[in-house]
Each structure stands twice: as structure tokens, then as C-alpha cells.
Design a protein that fits this description.
By secondary structure, the chain is mainly beta. Strands 2, 4, 5, 6, 9, 10 and 11 form a seven-stranded mixed sheet that branches. Strands 1-3-8-7 form a four-stranded antiparallel sheet, with no helix packed on it.
Amino acid sequence: QVQVAESGGGLVQTGGSLRLSCVASGRPGGRYGMGWFRQGPGKEREFVAAISWSGENTWYANSGEGRFTISRDGAKNTVYLQMSDLKPEDTAVYYCAVAVYGPAGGLTRAVSYDYWGQGTQVTVSS
């Protein structure tokens, strides 16, 4: 089993910054990818950012590109999402996910992921 745990959410004013962390434990093995998704109140879950096993490839949603940065540590089991210039529309529960068995439609698609964290709340005040 792979355990996924997010942290770092909170309340921040418009224009502020937050750094989310995600630890994947249980040694998933193989060349797995990791990604971030978010779901705002009354909205569907949407892709935010993803990173390949090697860390050489990253993907961003248009909403976060230029403001958000995803990174991975040397052990390849922890990812970070650095968010800057936050806006009220960024308010959501942010979920970290691990893709172990291969992408079904690429790492920008939720169906590619096998394990999910419980989510961490990010609230941006206006």
C-alpha cells in the first residue's frame, strides 16, 4: 500500500504564498509520477500540476502556470507545490496523487493516478 499525505494548506490573503508538501510512503517503486489536483466548493476536481519520476518533466494547468511551481526531492518520494500570487479562485481542497501503474491519459488526467491523499484546504481571502 502507498500512503499519500499532504500538508501546508491554510488561510492566506490575496497575493500571498503557500508551500504545499506531499509525502508518498510505502515505497511504491518503479517510475511513478506525482501530481496535484484541486476541488473548489461546488466545482469538479481539476488538474493543477504534475511531475515525472525523473523530475525532468513538469506539467501545469493554465490557471497556475507562472504562479505555481512543482518540485521533487532527491528520494523521489516527496513533492512540493509552491504557490505565489494567490487569488480567491485558488480556494479549494488540494489533493496529492501518485501514479504507479502507468498513465491512462497522461499525468494531467485524474484517471492516471492510483493513490490519493486526504487533501489539504487552501483558502484565499479577498
